[in-house]
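Support request, please re-run this one:
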Amino acid sequence: MGVANRRPTIAEPQRRALTPAEAGERLGLSSKELARLRDRGEGPAFVTFTQKSVRYLRSSVDDWDVQNTTWDDKLSA
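Re-run finished. Output below.
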């Protein structure tokens, strides 16, 4: 019997951690803007695996987006 070539299991897309580029795309920010927010202790919660490896949980990005969205009633009238 041969060994089957199996791909590693990938986390469900809605649970997968986002790269800074992916998080920035979701928020309408560049990766550099997210890095500035991290440096100031602001922005969505993130996890650092190494100095160059940062990831954001989708839920953290979505929560931060909701908390930092302002609505202008004058614009919706």
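The two ends are 69 Å apart (CA to CA). Residues 20-67 form one domain.
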